[in-house]
Amino acid sequence: MLSCKDLVMHSSDLLDGRLSFRRQLAVRTHLAICWKCRRFIRQLRMAQQVIRALPEDPIPNVDALAQNLAERQRGGG
């Protein structure tokens, strides 16, 4: 039987679909009985979805913003 610590160690591989059949069975068996680990995996999946939904360039025109900040620091803005 997998411990909670073991599940955490394999959680990334679980989400990425890189577990062997045997390990996947052990993880799913553990998740069937452990509500804390189910919640943990659910939170990881949610975080993964949020990260994937972020835009590739979260700060558009970062060079222009950096230049504007530099000008303000020099007293030019």
How does this structure look, described?
The protein is built from 4 helices and no strands. It is mostly helical. The protein is rod-shaped and about 65 Å long. The termini are far apart. The mean pLDDT is 88. This is Zf-HC2 domain-containing protein. Residues 4-38 form the Putative zinc-finger domain. InterPro entries: Anti_sigma_zinc_sf, Znf_put.
Q: Please report which band the strand proportion falls in: under 5%, 5-15%, 15-25%, 25-35%, 35-45% or over 45%.
A: under 5%
Structural class: mainly alpha
Distance between the termini: 64 Å
Q: Mean pLDDT, as a whole number?
A: 88
Supply the number of structural domains: 1
**Helix content range:** over 70%
Label the overall shape.
Answer: rod-shaped
Number of helices in the DSSP assignment: 4
Q: SSE order, as H and E?
A: HHHH
Largest sheet at a glance? none
Overall number of strands = 0
The radius of gyration over CA amounts to: 21 Å
Low-confidence stretches: none
Could you give a short description of this structure?
This protein has 77 residues and is mainly α.
List the helices and strands and how they pair.
Elements: H1 4-16, H2 21-33, H3 35-53, H4 62-74
Helix pairs in contact: 1-3, 2-3
